[in-house]
Design a protein that fits this description.
Layout: H1 3-14, E1 19-22, H2 26-38, E2 44-48, H3 54-62, E3 66-70, E4 83-86, E5 104-106, H4 107-115, E6 119-123, H5 128-139, E7 145-149, E8 167-171, H6 174-177, E9 186-189, H7 203-215, E10 222-226, H8 227-230, E11 241-246, E12 255-259, E13 262-267, E14 270-274, H9 282-287, H10 289-301, H11 306-315, E15 324-329, E16 332-336, H12 343-352, E17 356-362, H13 371-376, E18 384-388, H14 391-402, E19 408-411, H15 415-425, E20 431-434, H16 447-465
Parallel strand pairs: 1-2, 1-4, 2-3, 4-5, 6-8, 6-9, 7-8, 9-10, 10-11, 11-12, 16-20, 17-18, 17-20, 18-19
Antiparallel strand pairs: 12-13, 13-14, 15-16
Helix pairs in contact: 5-10, 15-16
Length: about 475
């Protein structure tokens, strides 16, 4: 489908409907702009909890056809409208929508209705941004490709120069997948761990939202999924073109795996081997091996040449805040893994950075189970565990009871003081790692702000000493 056909089709869908946009962040504003472009005189209701949403106030001041609803009760009347276009940041956790579920849609759902055959969708609790970026970097060498979705670029903001050959690489959160009715032709599912339980009723609802990326596929579509972690979820997947990524040996015709440092790809009786010996960042291979396997798989399904695959993966530097190398100062190495908001990703980071001696853990407490991390730390190479509130307070007693004799546990309430303490107690030729295993909302706007602050404190500290 091209841009003109999309505008025509979505205009027909929205023309005679009363519409409410739930949430006016980046995606909500993007949705409003498209609807207003298509229908200059249409009444549009926008609801948002924030009574002081500056962008909504600006829109209302220049558009008298916009009708805002704000405050704590902003969702009370959504069932009165023909179409509820939900933004990802809005939770319906406390709403009984069973009687009007068919009215609920989203920018993701609307986009999938018309472009599903041109979309490579990537989801998973962890690793989706890196995987999406890596896949996009590969396929844009051959196709007109757009990186969209949860990566921070709304679907409706990427409609220029779109034709039937355009491909969209879409990073997809569970929030975006919850109310879809179609799925991408090419779907990638990396993993599913307990996460965003402040947004969903329970883990089962979160998991169900993630699995929508597979359940709404057609038989002729393609799915790439993590065999080691998701085997129990594949029985009802309609796609006949399943490709499994794994670290183990499996008796499957279609798979991508690692064997003696070689990346192996097998699909439809085609067998290939890749050795990324010239890779820019060696830690990337170990920490993001499943991202590489998925990227190889999608690239081959799309018939992209091996020279392109090798070039992009060997030169890929990784993304900010994802096991990011901050620098080496006075023979001490620092890594920023602020994206790690669950225990499983922190465990993975500790395993990847073999000389990690010091770690900073903690943040906003969403009630996640930390048993796996608490049992892992005493078996690890870590010597200094610095905890910060709120999670730090919750797990300190249990961690003190489980720790090895040579491990030190300390709770520091102030983040900057925690980082400075980490700098001072880390030995030469050892590494210090920020991998919080918790969200950032108690002290920071998001994980990006937390990671940036961590880097600033380190660089400022050593600048003063030089």
């Amino acid at each position: 489908m091209n841009s003109f056909d999309f505008s025509t089709s979505i205009s027909k869908l929205l023309k005679d409907k009363s519409i409410i946009i739930a949430g006016f962040g980046r995606e909500g504003e993007s949705t409003y702009k498209l609807i207003r472009k298509l229908f200059p005189e249409k009444n549009i209701t926008i609801c948002d909890k924030n009574e002081n949403n500056s962008n909504l106030i600006k829109v209302k001041n220049v558009d008298d056809k916009v009708h805002p609803i704000t405050g704590d009760d902003y969702l009370n009347s959504i069932s009165d409208y023909d179409l509820i276009i939900k933004s990802p940041g809005i939770s319906f956790k406390h709403i009984d929508y069973s009687n009007f579920k068919e009215k609920i849609t989203s920018q993701t759902d609307l986009f999938f209705r018309f472009f599903s055959n041109q979309i490579i969708g990537i989801t998973g609790t962890k690793g989706k941004s890196t995987t999406s970026t890596l896949i996009h970097d590969i396929i844009k060498k051959k196709y007109n490709a757009h990186l969209v979705g949860n990566i921070g670029i709304p679907f409706f903001d990427n409609l220029e120069n779109v034709n039937s050959e355009t491909l969209f690489v879409a990073e997809l959160s569970a929030n975006q997948l919850q109310f879809i009715h179609n799925a991408p032709k090419y779907s990638v599912l990396l993993n599913i761990y307990p996460e965003h339980l402040d947004h969903f009723v329970d883990f089962d609802e979160y998991k169900s939202a993630k699995l929508n990326i597979l359940h709404y596929q057609n038989a002729e579509d393609y799915c790439v999924l993590n065999y080691d972690e998701l085997l129990s979820n594949i029985e009802k997947i309609p796609s006949k073109n399943k490709l499994f990524v794994t670290e183990s040996n499996i008796n499957k015709q279609n798979f991508a795996s690692i064997n003696n440092n070689l990346f192996v790809f097998s699909f439809n009786n085609q067998l290939k081997h890749y050795n990324f010996k010239n890779i820019y960042n060696p830690n990337f291979v170990d920490h993001f091996k499943f991202s590489i396997l998925c990227a190889i798989s999608i690239a081959n399904i799309l018939n992209i040449e091996d020279d392109i695959i090798n070039e992009v993966i060997n030169n890929f530097k990784g993304l900010e805040h994802r096991l990011e190398f901050v620098g080496e100062y006075e023979k001490k190495t620092f890594y920023n893994d602020s994206i790690s908001t669950i225990p499983q990703s922190t465990i993975k980071a500790i395993k990847t950075i073999k000389n990690a001696q010091t770690i900073i853990i903690g943040g906003y407490d969403r009630g996640i189970d930390y048993k796996e991390l608490l049992e892992f730390i005493p078996k690890s190479q870590l010597q200094n565990i610095i905890l910060v509130p709120d999670v730090g307070k919750r797990i300190m007693k249990d961690l003190n009871n489980l720790k090895k004799q040579d491990q030190t546990i300390i709770l520091i309430n102030d983040f900057e003081n925690a980082v400075i303490h980490a700098i001072n107690i880390t030995s030469q030729n050892k590494a210090c790692l920020l991998s919080p295993a918790a969200a950032s909302y108690n002290h920071f706007k998001n994980f990006e702000e937390r990671g940036t602050k961590y880097k600033e404190i380190i660089k400022k500290y050593f600048c003063k000493k030089s």
